[in-house]
Every structure is written in C-alpha cells, then in structure tokens.
Write a structure and sequence with these properties.
mainly beta, 7 helices, 6-stranded antiparallel beta sheet, 7-stranded antiparallel beta sheet
Length: 322
C-alpha cells in the first residue's frame, strides 16, 4: 500500500509532575488531567510513551508502527541509515509552576554505555513567563568539581549556579553535561534527542504528598558534569515569512518562522520536519490535504513531502536534522 502524504498530528502524552501547574490546560488547551500537569509529550517514540496519530488516514496508529511500515517515507533515507527505525527527536511542552530540580543529562557515549540510550542535548523556547521568572543554566565562572561537591554537601548548590531572567521568545541551548533547571512561572517548548535519561542532583529539599523525597543521582552525575562555561543564550532574527536560524547542532536544527498570510515551504533535505505553533494559528497544506494547527500544537511533515504551503498568522518553530 502506498504511503499517504499529509501533515500528521499526535495525541499529547500528559505527565503529572510535582512541579507542574495548569498552563498546559489554560494556555495551550491540553486536557486537564490534574492541577499539576508538568509535561505534554507532543511527539515521542520513547518506549512505553509512543505517540498515536490523531488525524487523517493513519489516525489511531502509533508512530512506531508507521515507521516500521514506511521508514523512508516518514524519516528519510539519511535518518534511517543513521538511527534505524528510531524516531531520533522528542518534542515537549513544559509548565513549571515551581522550580524543577537541578539536573543534567549524559552525552551519547555515557548514555549508550550505561543506559543503552541516546544522550540528551536540548533546546528551550520560552512561550510565556511570569514576572520575575528565571532559568538556571550552567555554573558561575570558575567553578570546579571541588566547589561543586562542597556546595552539594552543604545544600548550598544554588549559590554557584547561573540564574538568567526570562521573557517570552527567549531561547536556550542546553548541551549534555550542563547543570540546569527551569524556574517556576515558565512555560516553554523543548526539543531534545530521544532520551529520558536525567541525573537529578538537587531537588530543593522538597517532598511529595506522601512526605517522600525524589531520588537523586549524585554518583552517576559526577562523570557526566561539564564544568566549562558555555554559550547558552541564543539570539536570532524574526524576519517575516522566513526561516530564521535559532540553533543548529548535530542533533537538530531549529528555525523560527513568523508567518504572515502565506509562505511556501520547500524541503531541500530528505528528512522529516516538525512544525510547532507557539502563537496564533495557521493551515498547512500538502497537495490537496490540509491540517489546521493553533498555539500549542505540533505537526509532523513526512520526509517524502517535498514542499508545503502555510497560510495564516502564526509563529512556528521549524525542526529537523541537518
């Protein structure tokens, strides 16, 4: 059976978190499963968290099943040759009502050795931030492993961390080994490698509803931490109806498209593309098949599609692997 080319959407996979809130429901329109929804996994092939198609001819089928049946049509020949039948990216929306834990992620080598997984390089795009909101990214200048261990032991780790005030539209690049935390009051979009490996090193001494603390991974983190100062704040242009580069790395490329009325998108690479609507609404058309998306929704454009037309007034994140 030939592959049906159309913009694919997926059922959100919602995650209740100790630090979560209600913005995924009130701002992005996700189902309200609780008062502490922390994450909405928009497209995922992580085991036990595989996305299901929510529209069109493949509605109800899993991303995993579709890739096995139509690998090159969906992923593209380069992705298949590099990653096999694994969808190599995970895209989420996160709502931090409270601070997330201080954490970091291992690189590919460590993750493969310890967990048979990819590492976890990620990027954040801030969609909304309360007054005074901030993120924690990286150590302050000159921090050593000895400094880290001393402050960890005395529970004063925040004193040596780099806090950055945030506002809507800010973007951050989080390389593996970088200590980080999303601060309370921040709603953001996160693109990352397909990995659910997180090393939590400090959790603000909080407890859950049963009085229990969450597990820390201090020993695992020691070898994974990168103490070098890194460029984490991303700057980019906002030219109308253009793919404005935000970040490009071996794991993903992200562009920002401020859409006004109509934009014809050509896909020069034999790759899948993701489009995330962070503001407004638009319609994506492939041949005669269309899909409307609005703020808080994500769509997959299969690799076999060579061009599409976007119409409407929206801000889109365009994501692919170069």
């Amino acid at each position: 059976m030939s592959f049906i080319q159309y913009p694919m959407m997926f059922e959100p996979i919602l995650k209740d978190r100790i630090w979560g809130g209600e913005k995924l429901h009130t701002v992005l329109g996700k189902q309200q499963i609780s008062d502490s929804i922390g994450e909405s996994w928009e497209i995922s092939n992580v085991p036990e968290n595989v996305s299901l198609v929510s529209n069109g001819g493949y509605k109800g089928q899993s991303l995993e099943e579709l890739i096995k049946t139509y690998p090159e049509d969906i992923l593209g020949s380069y992705i298949v040759s590099t990653f096999g039948y694994q969808f190599p990216l995970l895209f989420k929306f996160l709502d931090a009502k409270e601070d997330l834990s201080i954490q970091l992620h291992p690189n590919d080598e460590l993750a493969r050795e310890r967990h048979n997984s990819l590492g976890k390089t990620e990027m954040w795009y801030v969609m909304q931030a309360d007054p005074g909101a901030r993120v924690v990214v990286d150590f302050k200048e000159g921090v050593t492993q000895q400094d880290y261990l001393q402050h960890l032991h005395t529970k004063t780790l925040p004193a040596i961390l780099n806090e950055i005030p945030v506002k809507k539209g800010d973007a951050f690049f989080i390389q593996t080994g970088t200590v980080h935390a999303i601060g309370g009051g921040v709603l953001l979009a996160e693109i990352q490698q397909t990995s659910d490996i997180t090393y939590r090193v400090y959790d603000w001494d909080r407890v859950d509803s049963e009085g229990q603390t969450r597990e820390l991974h201090v020993d695992l983190a020691l070898e994974a931490i990168n103490y070098e100062k890194k460029q984490v704040v991303l700057s980019y242009t906002k030219d109308i109806n253009q793919a404005n580069p935000v970040v490009s790395c071996p794991f993903f490329t992200v562009n920002l498209i401020p859409l006004e009325e109509r934009y014809e998108i050509e896909k020069p690479l034999d790759r899948f593309y993701l489009y995330v609507c962070t503001e407004g609404a638009c319609e994506l058309q492939i041949n005669t098949l269309t899909c409307g998306i609005k703020k808080g929704q994500t769509v997959l454009i299969p690799a076999s599609v060579k061009n599409l037309v976007a119409t409407g007034h929206a801000t889109l994140l365009e994501i692919y692997i170069d």
